[in-house]
Amino acid sequence: MRILWLIGLLLLTGCTPLSNSYPHLLMGNPSGASGGDLENLLLDKPQYALSYSATKGTANWVSWRLTQADLGPVGRCEAGFSLDPSLPATLTAIETNDYRRSGYDRGHLIPSGDRTANTLDNCATFVMTNIVPQTPENNRGTWADLEEYSRDLVKQGKELYIVAGPSGQQKRIAGQITVPTQLWKVILVLDQPGSGLQGITPSTQVIAVVIPNRKRLNRNWQSYITSVDRVEQLTGYDFFSAVSLPIQSVIESREAML
Ligand code: MN
Ligand code: MN
After folding, report:
1. Which pLDDT score, from 0 to 100, does residue 20 have?
2. C-alpha distance from residue 3 to each of 8, 15, 34 (Å)
3. Closest ligand relative to 31 C-alpha
4. Fewer C-beta within 10 Å: the chain N or C terminus?
5. Residues in the chain where the model's pLDDT stays below 50
6. Of 24, 45, 108, 185, catalytic
7. Residue 104, pLDDT score
8. Which residues have CB atoms below 5 A from the ion given as ligand 2?
9. pLDDT at 15
10. Strand ranges (DSSP E) for 67-181?
């Protein structure tokens, strides 16, 4: 009897789900990021999931769910930018000073404004792994307007699944940070918050953009709308891979009509 009880206990602990309970990769892990690959290193946090590239000195992508519960009264993290404590100690961590006098903003991938429920969540967006070099015109203009638009959708009752990242290399700063030639973002818009994968149909709206990372660009982010398929071709990633293939092929080939 005691042996049976022990076997039962082992089975029970063995069946503990390996995946965590965070919602940020519900739609899939775009590059199959994992704990072992320094070029595609999964940093899985309560506030978002991130794939880090040691060579780029930036994320490959950041993925997050955005709900009304994420939007609260908290202002920008008073402690400011910080090292990411979840990076392996063997890696040279990018520091906030590495961006100094580069001419580029320390641009958030998941914006500070998407994590304003409490100080801990907001400060989690200020770790340097979430930061990419963005031109001020991109970061504070076109890109910021799309961030604002996304939060407006949530305030209107939608729930979003967002993935954003850099692509290309126009130069390196501080010898170790890749300045991307463009930034991309894909947004899946759930009409029914909490409906998850079941809530996705062929008519689910997705918004995809590729925005140049330069001084001169169109302020109107809608002028950079493209399809998710195009962003997949650009990056080599597979977005929304947890969604059934027939639905993926419909929603990923269509450009958003707003
Ligand atoms: Mn920004
Ligand atoms: Mn896909």
Report:
1. 62
2. 9, 18, 36
3. 2
4. N
5. 1-18
6. 108
7. 98
8. 238-240, 248
9. 39
10. 105-108, 131-134, 159-167, 171-173, 177-179
